[in-house]
Write a structure and sequence with these properties.
Its cofactor is FAD. It comes from Glycine soja (Wild soybean). This protein folds into two domains: 168 residues, FAD/NAD(P)-binding domain; 91 residues, Alpha-Beta Complex (Polyamine Oxidase, Chain A, domain 2). 32% of the residues lie in helices and 18% in strands. It contains nine helices and 15 strands.
């Protein structure tokens, strides 16, 4: 609501908004995408390359690779790592880097704010608020800033749902996350009765997301400061050694949005593939002169050979070796 310039999402994708409540859940989209590259059966992922419920606590990185240590004591080794944790997790102490990230990287991470955005859903036995094509939102004026201010009903999107949604942000979100749902329900009902009178029914159910207190999220999305520049985006996105960073906070145009995370993931993957291609070429250039010198020590066996064809597996593994080279 306070964006000075047109929201980039509207500019690129249009201003129409859609509410989706598919009973299969949001992760259904992820599973459909995963089917393109993982082994699945009847909608279930059976690919043992995907390790679920592994809490990464430490990344050790060097010029030769990355070692990943998880909370349950397992250790994984990789040539490269793509890290897609949120900016809130990067600012927390969940994940340790060894060696510590360089100062320019830490400064960029610290400068990016984390937005906490909480949509609280209330279910009622019947509808008591005004509704219609031209009625969807109402605002509560209170002396305390952000106290159950912004309300929306679901009747236009889902007639008969009898649901209200109230949006809290930042400090109010953190306060509500720290208390019991029963207390939040009591506060919300007091606000509604202040607006609609004492005879409205009690809500029969409540849903309070806790993005801030979840150690794997630590906030809802990134919120870059008003005064920022391209260098800040570049430093947050830039790889450190063999660790590549991605996520909605690395999208300069669509940070804060789901499609920002999706598109950033594509960009980061392409950047990593390009880095792997360069590494492959550099190792090939190193290997060919070495093989040539070895070959020329036996002139009688290689009289007319000028170029070596090196098996792909020799340099994809990241290790230099020549025993199986084809001369």
């Amino acid at each position: 609501m306070a964006e000075v310039e047109p929201i980039s999402t509207y500019v690129d994708f249009g201003e129409r908004e859609f509410l989706v409540a598919d009973e299969r859940g949001y992760d259904y989209l992820l599973y459909k995408m995963a089917e393109e590259f993982l082994f699945t059966s009847e909608g279930r992922i059976l690919d043992n390359r995907l390790k679920l419920n592994k809490v990464v606590r430490e990344l050790q990185y060097s010029k030769s690779g990355v070692t990943v240590k998880t909370e349950d004591g397992f250790v994984y080794e990789a040539n490269y790592v793509i890290l897609s944790v949120s900016i809130g997790v990067l600012q927390s102490d969940l994940l340790a880097f060894n060696p510590t990230l360089p100062r320019w990287k830490l400064d960029a991470i610290e400068k990016c704010d984390v937005m906490v955005y909480t949509k609280i859903f209330l279910k009622f036995p019947y509808k008591f608020w005004p509704s219609g094509p031209d009625k969807e939102f109402f605002i509560y004026a209170h002396e305390r800033r952000g106290y159950y201010t912004f309300w929306q009903h679901m009747e236009n999107a889902y007639p008969g749902s009898n649901m209200l949604v109230v949006t809290l942000t930042n400090e109010e979100s953190k306060r509500v996350e720290a208390q019991a749902d029963e207390e939040t329900l009591r506060e919300a009902m007091a606000v509604l009765r202040d607006m609609f009178g004492p005879n409205i029914p009690n809500a029969i159910d409540i849903l309070v997301p806790r993005w801030w207190n979840n150690r794997f999220q630590r906030g809802s999305y990134s919120n870059y400061p008003i005064i920022s520049n391209h260098k800040l985006f570049h430093n947050i996105k830039a790889p450190v050694g063999r660790i590549f960073f991605t996520g909605e906070h690395t999208s300069e145009r669509f940070n804060g949005y789901v499609h920002g995370g999706y598109l950033a993931g594509i960009d980061t993957s392409k950047a990593l593939l390009e880095e792997m291609r360069k590494e492959k070429e550099s190792q090939t250039l190193l290997l060919e002169p070495l093989l040539a010198s070895l070959t020329m020590s036996k002139p009688e066996t290689v009289s007319n050979i000028h170029k070596c064809d090196i098996p792909t597996q020799l340099y994809l593994s990241g290790k230099l070796g020549v025993p199986e080279a084809i001369l």
